[in-house]
Records
---
Amino acid sequence: MGKKSENNKMHSDLSLERISDDLFMIFENEILFQRYYPPKESIEKRTDEYFEQKSKVKEMVNGEFKDSEIELLKNRIFKDILPAYSEYRQIKDSYLEKIENRSLLKYIGFTVLGFEALEAVFLKIGVLAPPTLIASVLFEILLGGAIYRIKSLTDQGKIITAKGYFFATVHNTQKKLYTDIEYSEYQHKKGTDQIVSEINVLLKKYDSKDNFWKDFIKIRKYDPTTQASFEKLNTPKFGDFILLHFDDKYNTRIRKIRYDELFKQAELYFKNKQ
């Protein structure tokens, strides 16, 4: 029950739907007076700026966002939400252009001409007697205006439908984010188990805690990420543990997690060994 509550809190903090709403409003307001959908680079830059500000606020208030959680959220935004918004904007701009280019006078003119042509045909064969000229023209003008209005409303309806598809994508992506978070937790736990196993192998190589801490301080201070930089430290017993740090296999954050776990396990190990 406690775990479920914790997950619900985490999911609430990582509301992709809420953030997508924010970004949607930002994008729509900023391009309100622009004719076409802005370049992809500007949207991505604005999204990066949004997350940067969001992270700062969260850190100042209560530190709810973890780096890993932000990355998962950003990945989903860039992978699924921004392309969906781009598609929505292209559809919207296409129909807005049609609406703007549609001429009321043309619709009225073509309607009047069309009906006048039909009346001329029917009059010629004597089937239909024409109504008074004024009433006929007024009817044709109203009909042309109605057709114009219906076409515009139809296009606006298609824009609303495209917007609905966008937010449906957001909703479905939120579910994917939940899976990402749960999988990340699983991987972290799995990774922690692996670290503990590596640490146990490393600590058994040291008979003296002083020698271990001497080597640990060197490793932690210089954080070697290449074979050459590691060999300069003359700490060969760390060879197996540090091997995975080479060639950018682990980023700075993950290396810090490994060092912190090593520090914690080493304290317990040498304390129990006394």
---
Amino acid sequence: MARKPRPPASDDDGFEDIPAAGGGATGQERARKAPGRIGTPRGRMIEAFMELLAEQPWETIGLGDIAARAGVSLAELRGQFGSKLAILAAHIKEIDREVLDGDHDDMTDEPTRERLFDVLMRRFEALSPYKESVRSLLQSARTNPPLALALNNFAVTSMQWMLAAAEIPSSGPTGLLRAQGLALLYANVMSTFLDDDEPGHARTMAALDRALGRGQQISGVFDRVCSLLPGFGRRRRPRPLRSTDLPDGDAVAV
């Protein structure tokens, strides 16, 4: 499935190409991904946490470690975030904002599946500098049910925004279930993405295309089933009350 190529980013951005701790993306690449936040204390806290996550499991990262890596005090860290989950939520929100801030005008006339494909690939691209961090996070979630539950909640919220970006209804019970299904689909493709070193993430694109094809078939069945359930389908407009529907006394009153 073809996507419109994006112009290469300029290397003359004022950031030194210093390898980030723990491997993965360089400091320059991360700065390019989040140019508005790297220079702020809050941004440094988020980036410090993601760097530590690429180096060690979730469970071993302490709040003091994050503050030290970010070059801030514990009091400053506490002033911005209440927990590691709060820092992770802020990172996910920034990734979503980067995707939503992109130019989607060229996809307006495309079919629904094409629009969703483009939005999700933009999100994978935004996550590229954080592959090792994501890999570490998912490994910890396998043995940490509360963390896994929190990640699912974050993913569902994120996918509601991705659906909205693709101009697909995401509100109400049906929208929530659609977002949950998309979160599972996205997580399934994530394993391919994390090991995809091909230019342009060709393997990820192929896996996402296949997954959306299967999801489209399931979604069609899902929508038909939901239309038969109270509260999910389209509500019928109530017809006007007729006098024949009421007992004689009430009919007279009407």
---
Amino acid sequence: MSRWRVNCFASALRESSTTLKSRPHVRRKRTGRTILARDMRHARLPNASVIYNMHPNLINSTRTDGGDIARHDTCLWNPLSVDPAARQFSSYAAFKDTAVVRPLVPDVPVDAELIDAHDQLCQQIAGDYYPCTGAISVFAQKGYRFGLFPELACDNAVRAVCHDLYEFCHEFPIIDDQLITFIAMFRGPAIESEQHFEHMLWSQLQAMHAIDSDFFAWDKSVDSDPMNNNFSFSIGGRAMFVIGMHPKASRLARTFRYPTMVFNLHEQFECLRARGKFETMKQIIRAREMKFQGSINPMLKNFGESSEASQYSGRAVSGNWPCPFHAHKKDET
């Protein structure tokens, strides 16, 4: 990658920051919300085409202008790497050997509540007859990343989860035989009902999409219309099947102390189908669910039979349930 392109990228970031600082009270409309542009948190970075045309590594660029040196450390695979709120509330964690670690900030002490939340999740997955053999396999192989974020659907949580999912997609660019997943747990709010959680989950996904669509196109292997049978949520250009968990869930396998969203890369299910393993796993899960709760989740469907959007929150809904999510029109071209 040429020094000229690096310097152009650094210059664009610096000029965006300078412009916003000189106009601290400029307001602009974005996805139906009024945003107060006070700092780089709301500065638009170079678009995805610029990012993809550059080497996908950390940029350490230096530009001298009038004696001042501007340094910009930007992960090109993660457009929120320069977002102060996303970085502050990032919680990207892994379980290595016998301890919770923070790969992105290894020198920062691990939050005790994050460790406790992880321990509780492990205990639930390891319980007798827990139905999801995929989750059991993921935890046994430590093929998961996780985090504990601010209140579900608040701006800081939205930015931080996007940030960490970009890191997750970068860490796992290719899917092999190992199942992987990203688990986002939230410190609140206190969930009142299944309908309440469903509303919060889709508010989170809608706000994440509002950010993500500035940088990434929808995964072309799936549809962006939640009423389409081929719908799947997309983040960072990759399709994700989302599983919601919370204290008020009627399905025991979906019950958890923290409001939680589990993001599974869609491509791994296609890999299982290609290897002839998906149907076997599905039958095992349903047999275990009968032992675990005495009934099979009525919302479970194979991809393509109906929109998977109705499965995300875990609440049983009718066939004419209106999904509140709307993808941006520019993603449907």
---
Amino acid sequence: MTRSISGLLASALLAFPLFSAATDGGSSILVLDASGSMWGQIGGRPKVEIARQAVATMLKTWPAGQSLGLIAYGHRRKGDCADIELIQSPQPMNAAVFLQRVDGLQVKGMTPITASVRLAAEQLKSTERKATVILVSDGEETCKADPCALGKELEASGVDFTAHVIGFDLPEGPARQQLQCLASSTGGQFLEARNAGELNRALEAVSAGKPVAVKTAEQWIPGHALEWSTGEQIDGVSAESGARVIEFAVDRTAQDCQAQCLADTSCAGWHYEPTGSFFIDYPRCHLQGYGAPMTLRPEGEGWVAGVKAGVKLIRVPTD
């Protein structure tokens, strides 16, 4: 079954480029946010507890031959931007020992993302192997540094370094922009997780090298319809939910349908069905919501489909 990540529109529209975080026998470091904000709760559970459980799930499928290290920040002192610790250098996996170290983290302090990722890059550079950082953070940099600038610096240095970033319950604003830029600057992926299930799937995807396909949405696709995959249920969203049809007057156009979707915050994609299709004598505008897999169906002249700008088309097989 295909599942969506972080509320983005899951899709099987085209053949997309794939990324793999940890399948080549290289070295990785997990950078965990242990700042004070990780005491915040989701569904009545502290975020730090959810993160610990997600790491435990990730380790069950960690690739053989892939070394893993651990860096944490904000776990020892309040208000100290130097509170960054290399807890475990990259080494062959011992899940019990690794989990013991993760479970021992206390959440207290600041969010020095930039310095933490720099430390990870320095450690991985010394291994002279393909280097991957997996960063899990729930907030923006709070120590007068720029994760985006660091990503560009590392990429320009020529080091074989990739940062995959998971934004966990991120607020709107600078935090998302910083972390997106860090990932994209190093050729990595930025994934968002709003709850325990999404964090589990995001960590599993970047660590086990599952094929996660990402493509920027196309806003205008002539001759096609965008529809939900039939017969599947994705994260509790049935194939029949989240979609609605608006019957247009005969003079309404595909541009009107696109405008209808753009004005509706719950709409992720749309398609325009012209007069005469399926024996109807008026056009129809189909609006699709977020959270379930979509298919792009060829139709013909007069049909147009599209997806909002900024929405990602993502496919993550889980079997």
